[in-house]
């Protein structure tokens, strides 16, 4: 869903979003200062630390030396430069404003990168806590609880229910702990494959957008990226039909991809975006977006309106992630505290009962 797609190339090398962002920004600066495209690519080729990206830059330079345009050269690497990026470069070359388009692309990519970092930063703490709790829980289950079995079985006291439950868990972990861990890992891998399979992905995309709390964040994230991409393309001079066609190829969420395809059909037939969005089938697009798009179309400033909406939805995501972090933190601490208290109570109670009986 990004202007730059994360890519996979031979030897499992990965070109990061930040690296491609810097490529765009540096290329823009050098072209504005009067350096030719070939000279700029040569400089960037020597500066990059990624062997995979260096090979791509060499291939692009070779194509340009053979008389091809930058648009065609970039288009040969669709896993790195998607159709949205290539189209904006093409508009820049045709209008003679390649440096300006690159500068604008770099600016929007920077905003997208900052947006992504905000989400990751807001969700980092609860994710770290959950992972730490899982690791501690597995460690206790595999290494600590099995040792309690022989200890408590040798105690001549009536074990409380909590201790009996703990011993049952310990027995299961002792006998099947490794199998359970391997099974969980396999299930995670299978689930990951399932949600990316073309036949099942639409279902999981709809479920993702409907989950309480997190569904709202997913919706606003999709809308922010959608509005920014369309705004960039229209501002760069692409007609709305071409912009929608490109967006339908780069959008990864099946729900919004279907929306865009429907909008493309309607706009191609001469209808406006706002009239089409008024229909009830666009349930995942809020009313405020449809109304503002209508104003943008009436005033001839649809590009500015879309970019404003992108900022609006990004702020909504930022606020929601902060609120979720604030809400989840005490809940996670409470759950972890109850888990620790249960184990402590289950271990201490029979020992206390034993010492009490000895004193008598």
Folded structure, characterized:
Helix 8 packs across helix 9. The protein is elongated and about 90 Å long. The N terminus is likely disordered. The longest helix has 58 residues. With 360 residues, it is mainly α. The chain is built from 14 helices and no strands. The N and C termini lie far apart (71 Å). It folds into two domains: 98 residues, Receptor-associated Protein (Up-down Bundle), CATH 1.20.81.30; 245 residues, Type II secretion system (T2SS), domain F (Receptor-associated Protein).
Outline:
With 360 residues, this protein is mainly α. The protein has helices at 17-32, 37-47, 51-65, 70-75, 83-95, 98-153, 161-196, 201-210, 214-235, 240-250, 254-268, 273-277, 287-299, 302-359.
Which helices and strands, and how do they pair?
Layout: H1 17-32, H2 37-47, H3 51-65, H4 70-75, H5 83-95, H6 98-153, H7 161-196, H8 201-210, H9 214-235, H10 240-250, H11 254-268, H12 273-277, H13 287-299, H14 302-359
Helix pairs in contact: 1-2, 1-6, 2-3, 5-6, 6-7, 6-14, 7-14, 8-9, 9-10, 9-14, 10-11, 13-14
């Amino acid at each position: 869903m990004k202007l730059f797609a994360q890519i996979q190339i031979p030897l499992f090398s990965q070109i990061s979003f930040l690296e491609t962002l810097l490529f765009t920004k540096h290329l823009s600066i050098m072209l504005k200062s009067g350096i030719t495209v070939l000279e700029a690519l040569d400089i960037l080729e020597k500066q990059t630390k990624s062997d995979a990206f260096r090979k791509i830059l060499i291939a692009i330079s070779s194509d340009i030396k053979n008389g091809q345009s930058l648009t065609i050269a970039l288009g040969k690497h669709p896993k790195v430069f998607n159709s949205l990026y290539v189209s904006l470069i093409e508009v820049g070359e045709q209008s003679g404003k390649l440096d300006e388009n690159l500068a604008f692309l770099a600016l929007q990519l920077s905003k997208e990168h900052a947006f992504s970092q905000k989400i990751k930063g807001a969700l980092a703490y609860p994710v770290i806590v959950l992972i730490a709790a899982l690791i501690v829980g597995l460690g206790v289950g595999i290494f600590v609880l099995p040792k309690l079995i022989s200890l408590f079985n040798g105690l001549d006291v009536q074990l409380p229910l909590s201790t009996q439950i703990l011993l049952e868990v310990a027995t299961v972990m002792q006998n099947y702990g490794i199998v359970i861990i391997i099974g969980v890992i396999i299930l995670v891998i299978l689930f990951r494959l399932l949600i990316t399979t073309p036949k099942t992905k639409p279902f999981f995309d709809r479920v993702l957008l409907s989950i309480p709390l997190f569904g709202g964040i997913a919706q606003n994230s999709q809308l922010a990226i959608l509005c920014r991409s369309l705004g960039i393309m229209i501002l760069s001079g692409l007609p709305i039909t071409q912009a929608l066609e490109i967006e339908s190829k780069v959008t990864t969420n099946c729900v919004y991809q279907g929306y865009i395809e429907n909008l493309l059909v309607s706009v191609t037939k001469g209808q406006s975006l706002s009239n089409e969005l008024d229909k009830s089938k666009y349930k995942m697009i809020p009313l405020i977006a449809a109304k503002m798009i209508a104003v943008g179309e009436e005033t001839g400033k649809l590009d500015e309106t879309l970019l404003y909406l992108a900022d609006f939805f990004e702020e909504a995501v930022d606020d929601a992630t902060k609120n979720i972090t604030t809400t989840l933190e005490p809940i996670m601490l409470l759950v972890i505290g109850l888990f620790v208290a249960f184990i402590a109570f289950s271990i201490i109670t029979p020992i206390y009962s034993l010492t009490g009986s000895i004193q008598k």
